[in-house]
């Protein structure tokens, strides 16, 4: 796991109890996600990684797994560097 994945897993583990969430595991399919949690997740990503999540970023596919959230963060931070 890279640093982004570790930060995401640490945050998500607070909500997933004793479940050992894997990087490619669908958090929506596990049934742990509700609208309040989704808002918390977006806010965490914005604050922790200093990026803005735009309306077009708010798709399930971008937030379904640790890997997909990591890909979103990497794309957004790469845009900031350019």
Automatic annotation (TrEMBL):
Q: According to the lineage, what is the superkingdom? A: Bacteria
Q: What is this protein called?
A: D-alanyl carrier protein
One Pfam family, please name it. PP-binding
PROSITE patterns documented for this protein = CARRIER
- Lineage, uppermost ranks: Bacteria, Bacillati, Cyanobacteriota, Cyanophyceae, Nostocales
List the SUPFAM superfamilies. ACP-like (SSF47336)
Q: Carrier domain: from which residue to which, for each copy? A: 1-77
Q: Known InterPro entries for this protein? A: ACP-like_sf (IPR036736), PP-bd_ACP (IPR009081)
